[in-house]
């Protein structure tokens, strides 16, 4: 699956990358494990690729942005015209890459575009960390299609 558009440091794609995925609905016990994981990745300087779309994924991004490690944000839509203020400095520092398999005409995230984005992240990642996957959900089904190492936090 090809990256259609990007903004930021394309060299980050050459790094060892961990994809972080999480179901939209998550158990309370999993939330703290995800926060602890994010802090550990930040402190270790590990490159994380994620959609950072759900509330929990946004929280994980918040923890990661406090560090200096590289971050790849994979969009389930075309690139945005306006970059979030908290991303501007890390982008200027060359530690963020925003990628999308879609062009600018795709303006909304749908279940289908999210699935395409998740497949792209899994392809690009060296390993996968799952914050939480709902039993029988789309994420659980998607994970069955990869041979890559999967670490489940819960």
How would you characterize the overall build of this protein?
This protein is α/β, with parallel strands linked by helices. Helices cover 36% and strands 19% of the residues. It has five helices and seven strands. The radius of gyration is 14 Å and the shape is globular. The model has no long low-confidence stretch (mean pLDDT 94).
Q: What is the total tally of β strands?
A: 7
Would you tell me the overall average pLDDT? 94
For the record, give the distance between the C-alpha atoms at the N and C termini, rounded to a whole number: 29 Å
How many helix segments? 5
* Order of H and E elements: EEHEHEHEHEHE
List the topology elements:
Layout: E1 5-8, E2 17-21, H1 28-44, E3 47-50, H2 55-65, E4 71-74, H3 85-92, E5 96-100, H4 111-124, E6 127-130, H5 138-143, E7 150-152
Parallel strand pairs: 2-3, 2-6, 3-4, 4-5, 6-7
Antiparallel strand pairs: 1-5
Helix pairs in contact: 1-2
Summary?
This protein is of the alpha/beta class.
Keywords, separated by commas or semicolons:
single chain; 154 residues; alpha/beta; seven-stranded mixed sheet; 5 helices; 7 strands; 36% helix
């Amino acid at each position: 699956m090809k990256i259609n558009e990007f903004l930021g440091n394309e060299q980050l794609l050459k790094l060892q990358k961990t994809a972080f995925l999480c179901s939209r609905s998550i158990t309370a016990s999993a939330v703290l494990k995800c926060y602890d994981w994010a802090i550990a990745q930040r402190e270790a300087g590990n490159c994380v690729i994620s959609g950072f779309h759900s509330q929990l994924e946004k929280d994980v991004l918040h923890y990661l942005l406090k560090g200096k490690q590289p971050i790849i944000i994979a969009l389930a839509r075309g690139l945005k015209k306006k970059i979030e203020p908290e991303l501007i400095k890390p982008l200027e520092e060359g530690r963020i890459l925003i990628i999308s398999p879609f062009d600018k005409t795709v303006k909304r995230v749908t279940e289908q575009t999210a699935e395409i984005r998740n497949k792209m992240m899994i392809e690009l990642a060296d390993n996968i960390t799952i914050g939480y996957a709902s039993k029988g959900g789309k994420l659980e089904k998607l994970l069955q299609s990869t041979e890559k190492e999967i670490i489940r936090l819960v």
